[in-house]
Specification:
- The chain is an alpha/beta fold.
- It has a single domain, classed as Flavodoxin domain (Rossmann fold).
- Helix content is about 25%, strand content about 30%.
- It is built from 5 helices and 7 strands; from the N terminus they run E-H-E-H-E-H-E-E-E-H-E-H.
């Protein structure tokens, strides 16, 4: 299943929805993670908050390919995209295991294929390096076999990448 998390304006909604199995619009119309860890323990992979991100752990957990389209914010995801990712912590469990000689949380849904990030907006070379490193680490933590980060100058480049 291909999942796209994006922070683009409404004019891109149909374009995104046509290119994936599930589109998650990071529009900021939801609460941030409260850090209660209920999605880990009390009700696995389900947030207690009753908003459009209540099932985000299951959606992202079942993705073979996760595509994140985000505006650059100092070498990181936009606030709205970061909030979606924070709310998906329940894709793993509170238990730990070794993967690649490093300790990580045990995956609730198993391995995935591609963590792909498409970044738009002004960005420095240092921010690009930060983004690449962060995406690589996020992919490992969430059980993705590989990661890819692409930087675009104009939105028309998006069509060839999604």
């Amino acid at each position: 299943m291909k999942v796209i998390v994006y922070d683009l304006e409404n004019q891109y909604r149909e374009f995104i929805q046509e290119r994936c199995d599930c589109a998650v619009e990071a529009d900021g119309k939801y609460a941030p993670c409260q850090g209660c860890f209920g999605c880990w323990t009390k009700h696995p992979a389900e947030c207690f908050m009753k908003d459009k991100l209540q099932q985000i752990c299951r959606v992202i957990g079942q993705a073979d390919e996760l595509v994140i389209i985000t505006k650059n914010l100092y070498g990181s995801y936009s606030t709205a995209v970061k909030t979606v990712l924070d709310r998906s912590i329940g894709t793993s469990t509170p238990f730990s295991t070794y993967r690649g000689k490093q300790m990580h949380h045990t995956l609730r849904y198993g391995k995935h294929d591609l963590w792909k990030v498409i970044v738009y907006g002004d960005i420095t070379d240092a921010e690009k390096e930060t983004f690449r490193y962060m995406a690589e680490r996020n992919a490992i933590n969430d059980g993705f076999e590989r990661s890819e980060v692409l930087f675009i100058q104009e939105m028309k480049e998006l069509e060839a990448l999604v």
